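Hi V.,

Quick status before I head out on leave. The structure for the redesign project is tokenized and pasted below; the design run finished overnight.
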């Protein structure tokens, strides 16, 4: 497979030094940067898919009329949180 290169990147010397200071055994600055780019690309892809699923779900709920108001969900979560806090408090006594 043919490879391609990313554009060169100009940074302040402090950032380069910081990046080099956290390199793991046998890791190069180039492989560190490549890994960071891969992770960011994947995170953004997953985030875009998450938003797309959320919007699709919202639209389906609106179309069907089958949805729960946010205030109801927040109240239920608050009750669960209160119960968990009470349980922790009982264990500490």
């Amino acid at each position: 497979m043919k490879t391609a290169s990313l554009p060169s990147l100009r940074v302040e010397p402090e950032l380069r030094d910081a990046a080099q200071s956290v390199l793991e055994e046998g890791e190069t600055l180039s492989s560190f940067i490549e890994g960071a780019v891969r992770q960011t690309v994947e995170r953004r892809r997953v985030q875009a898919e998450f938003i797309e699923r959320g919007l699709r779900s919202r639209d389906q709920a609106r179309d069907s009329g089958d949805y729960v108001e946010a205030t109801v969900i927040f109240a239920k979560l608050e009750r669960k949180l209160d119960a968990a806090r009470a349980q922790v408090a009982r264990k500490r006594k």
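Above is the designed sequence. Residues 13-92 form one domain.

G. will cover questions while I'm gone.

Best,
W.
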